[in-house]
Amino acid sequence: MSAADVVASICLVLGCFLCLTAGLGLVRFPDVLNRMHAATKPQVLGVLLVMTGAVIRLTGQPIVWMLVLVAVFQLLTAPVSAHMVSRIAYRRRHVRRDLLVVDELGTTGDTLPARPHPVHPEGDPDADEPADGPEARPTR
Amino acid sequence: MTVVAIVCFALLGAGAVLILARLAIGPSLLDRVVSTDALLVTIACGIAVYCAVYRDISLEPVLLVVALLAFVGSVSVARYIGGMLVATEPGPDEEPVVGGSTRQGREEAP
Prior knowledge:
The structure holds two protein chains of two kinds.
Chain A: H1 3-28, H2 32-57, H3 65-91
Helix pairs in contact in A: 1-2, 2-3
Chain B: H1 2-25, H2 29-54, H3 60-88, H4 100-108
Helix pairs in contact in B: 1-2, 2-3
């Protein structure tokens, strides 16, 4: 094994170890947001390490740019999907509120807010929802 | 390099088994979305490890497809669950009743 192979092997093993930590975190952690925190480790750092190892191993092959493309796509898409899943998790009340240190979306009291998100004075938070959403329901 | 392949596939396999356990027992739909995302990332890592260890580039387009499928799948299912929230407005920690009948019933209410 040459020096490049040693570096590539270290990168590959570290990336695969991060996939194992994702599995452990998904099994052990209590709610959706914590599990997302665990599952994001291989999504960004694990994929970057594995792609680095693969690029080092495959240097000179004609299709190596595709590995770089996969890494760039992961960096671009992981925040978007994490944002959407966590937003829906908060609105569906899948968040363990007794584990929260600070809840910047909720109210400051101990009681649950009547709606999952409070009134935002600056702009409509439901602007991306359909027109027949709970905002459009007539109040009686 | 064979030792590296064995170690990598053992780590990936253990992680995939744990992720599948969460996928099976996950109490909510979002847990399953998150674990499906992690499972697809694990599959992509496995394909990349195979390509790297055996210097075989024939599977690299599959790698790109799997990486994009993870994003599209999780985002579309998250949007779908958001639509369920808007349609039925469920109680705390309840799975809502999905379907057109609930929506029609609400519209017919005075």
